[in-house]
Amino acid sequence: MDVSTPSRLCLSPVDGKQVLLGFDGARMSSDAGLLLLREIERREGLAGCLATCVKDPRAPARVQHSLEEIIRFRILMIAAGYEDANDAADLRHDPSFKLALERASESGAALCSQPTISRMENLPDVRTLIRMGREMVRFYCQSFPRAPRQIVLDIDDTFDAAYGHQQLRLFNSYYDEYGFQPIVVFDGEGRLVGAQLRPARRPKGAEIAAHLRRLIRQIRRFWPKTEILLRADSHYCTPQVLDLCDGLDLLYVFGLSKNTRLAAHVLPLEASTAERYARSPGPTLRRFKTFSYAAGSWSKPRRVIARVEVSFRGRDTRYIVTNLEGGRGKHLYKRLYSARGQAENHIKGWKTHLAADRTSCSKANANQMRLMLHGCAYWLWWTLRAACPKRSPWRHAQFDTLRLHLLKLAATIVEKKTRIIITLPACCPRRKLLTLLFRALEPPRPA
């Protein structure tokens, strides 16, 4: 019997045998690992948190897709690497996505379409987005089994290029293009606390202080006794922010910009360090100095730590300011402040692997809503990575690596009368890890 049909493609032969390819196989999906994220989303209820903040203007009798279902579909699309809402036209029939949205793989109705998703993204107003931001902080606090003794918050901003004439877009001379510059806050372990869309300019002290005041107020509603340590780059070290930290009893370690008065404090140390390096050249020589300093705009003197570095590239001196009283300056700089750089990797993962910079809507509210959705997708992957074995490399893997190995899996999905059976390939290279994760995320069985 000739199996060559118009639906099959003929490839190069192997061992003298004809190789045919077709798309007429069983009911399959290429994103079967999405069910891992489904279990996390069902347990954490991220989509429900956002949906409770939005007032649905539709007539209840005509609603086919609830807001929670639309939001969940969009979050899972982003997590699976489909940041473009147009992909919903194909994914709405995918059996894995239908199962993740609590619909039967074959008999269940199709999921929502791209226009429905776009309407959802444009639905929230400013008050709704504020409520969503509070819900994200509440979710962050409830992700801990108990109130921690101390948390570290890394605050930074990142540039998002604009796609056209969009609200809040602004020309940034450093990046030489129009865009946005949202403020993003992560904690020391990589949890996303919040993200706020804003124009592409360096935030001023009053703006930063107002944002931090609102954030700290929300966190302390849940953790009134938890000690909070802030870390940030030098442009967050403004008089308003420093006074805010003093007024709210916040600990801080901020970068400090260079100036001539600071340079005078370390001039002898720079000279002696350069002489020592000249006598015995090596890779790098670092020395530290702690002293008290007060800028003209500061309300009081503060502790400053200078790091003097000499190498074959020349001299490099950096400064940080802190209100931490104990600890050596070397330890505070190397172990505490330098760890702030990990927040940039979190931002990179959020933008590069989850396309959080896809702020292409014309309205600012819709783009802020997208930051919320991409933030929820980040939480799904962070939670899945945290469920991996502690000493395995998967505990530190990038999101795109986890997605490639754990989500992009081919599977046959068969719906029967009382069961839905998912069959993964017997030669799946990550079988042991997938089994461990599915068991760890398995819901409790009924008694």
Q: How does the SSE layout of this entry go?
A:
Layout: E1 8-14, E2 17-22, E3 28-29, H1 34-44, H2 46-51, H3 67-79, H4 88-91, H5 95-100, H6 114-121, H7 126-142, E4 150-157, E5 160-161, E6 170-172, E7 177-180, E8 183-187, E9 192-196, H8 205-222, E10 227-232, H9 239-247, E11 251-256, H10 260-279, E12 284-293, E13 302-311, E14 314-322, H11 329-337, H12 342-353, H13 364-386, H14 399-407, E15 411-415, E16 420-423, H15 431-440
Parallel strand pairs: 4-10, 10-11
Antiparallel strand pairs: 1-2, 3-15, 4-8, 5-7, 6-7, 8-9, 11-14, 12-13, 13-14, 15-16
Helix pairs in contact: 1-13, 3-13, 7-8, 7-13, 8-9
Organism: Paracoccus benzoatiresistens
Domain Transposase DDE: 12-442
InterPro entries: RNaseH-like_sf, Tnp_DDE_dom, Transpos_IS1380
Q: Would you mind describing this structure in some detail?
A:
Residues 12-442 form the Transposase DDE domain. This is IS1380 family transposase. Pfam families: DDE_Tnp_1_4. With 447 residues, this protein is α+β, with helices and mostly antiparallel strands. It has 15 helices and 16 strands. The protein has helices spanning 34-44, 46-51, 67-79, 88-91, 95-100, 114-121, 126-142, 205-222, 239-247, 260-279, 329-337, 342-353, 364-386, 399-407, 431-440, and strands at 8-14, 17-22, 28-29, 150-157, 160-161, 170-172, 177-180, 183-187, 192-196, 227-232, 251-256, 284-293, 302-311, 314-322, 411-415, 420-423. The strands form four sheets. An eight-stranded mixed β-sheet has the order 9-8-4-10-11-14-13-12, sandwiched between helices. Strand 1 (8-14) and strand 2 form a beta hairpin. It is globular and about 80 Å long. 34% of the residues are buried. The model is unreliable at 1-5 (pLDDT under 50).
